[in-house]
Design goal:
The chain is mainly α. It has one domain. It has 12 helices and no strands. Helix 1 crosses helix 11 and helix 3 packs antiparallel against helix 7. The longest helix has 26 residues. The radius of gyration is 19 Å and the shape is globular.
Length: 321
């Protein structure tokens, strides 16, 4: 944190917050638009390979040293957990699940991290507040998945929801593991290495899945290509830059409020621009999950752990709240 005299103008801070709130919240709709035409693993791979390479090149030109071999190795481990697993599942699921619902379920990452801390790491004790927070979040997911009480909405694709929960697990494990790995001291360079390694792995997965064989670039509409460009430039590069910049002037807790705002933005944009239905089930499930996330993330912990870093892999394991 810097002194008040060196703080930037208020409009710059507001602009940076608007970027991490609105841009990151809009990326879910951009993904859904893109995967209608571009194979999911290929689209995710292109997004993070290009964004990671661009960030790496810019940082090298700016004088930031490239990661060592050991740092590249550990960045690749996180690239597997937080990009290959997380985003392969997210992009695949958004072919089947509305973008707003995808954002809401991925807001469960702090819940998943807390469960891991309690059950496996033993770094957190199960208190009444934690237990209630976890229970409310799990009930929220059950509300969204329940095909017998959809409250007037169409039942969700169960495979898509399961893929999103696996996505949460991949990111959560990566967040916890990151504290035990050797990473580049520069957070932006560390993020670039993770993005680049994860993007290459996603492209390899696309090749294994046969997506290249059936992909014809000339058949893709300009709308789908624009969604990919938006994800690369606005979602990954601009969003991450604003996030890291904000951390110099605001507390991680305040900056981390994007985790509560992004799902709401995604639901609103999905309904307004994507034609997605927002009924009683979506509203109830979203409310329960956000209450759970707020209850869990506002608990003061004895041992600091990396926060759930927004859906945008830009931060993954890079920003420790």
């Amino acid at each position: 944190m810097t002194s008040a005299s060196s703080r930037p103008a208020a409009w710059k801070l507001l602009l940076a917050f608007a970027i991490i709130y609105l841009v990151w919240g809009s990326t879910y709709l951009a993904i859904r638009i893109g995967v209608r035409e571009i194979p999911p693993f290929l689209m995710a791979g292109l997004r993070f390979t290009v964004a990671g390479l661009a960030m790496w090149a810019w940082l090298r030109i700016s004088g930031t040293p490239s990661p060592s071999l050991r740092e590249w190795r550990d960045a690749t481990v996180l690239g597997t957990l937080m990009f290959l697993i997380d985003y392969a599942c997210l992009f695949w699921a958004e072919q089947r699940v509305p973008s707003g619902i995808a954002a809401v379920i991925l807001a469960m990452i702090p819940v998943c991290i807390t469960l891991l801390e309690i059950t496996f790491l033993r770094t957190q004790r199960l208190t009444l507040r934690l237990g209630l927070g976890l229970a409310v979040g799990i009930i929220g997911v059950v509300v969204l998945m329940n095909p017998w009480a959809s409250l007037g909405e169409a039942p969700l694709d169960r495979r898509g929801v399961i893929a999103l929960l696996i996505s949460c697990c991949g990111w959560s494990i990566g967040t916890i593991v990151s504290g035990r790995l050797t990473l580049q001291a520069s957070k932006p360079m560390s993020a670039a290495a993770q993005m680049l390694s994860g993007g290459v792995q996603l492209l390899a997965l696309a090749a294994i899945a046969g997506e290249f064989a059936h992909f014809r670039a000339q058949d893709i509409s300009s709308t789908a290509w624009l969604s990919l460009v938006y994800l690369i430039i606005a979602g990954s590069i601009v969003g991450f830059t604003a996030y890291v910049w904000l951390l110099h002037y605001e507390s991680p807790t305040k900056v981390g409020t994007y985790a509560y705002v992004n799902p709401v933005v995604a639901v609103i944009l999905g309904a307004a621009l994507g034609g997605e239905t927002v009924g009683r089930r979506t509203i109830l499930g979203t409310a329960l999950i956000l209450i759970s996330v707020v209850a869990i993330t506002t608990i003061k912990r004895k041992q600091s752990t990396p926060a759930s870093v927004s859906r945008e892999a830009e931060l993954k394991a890079v920003a420790d709240d």
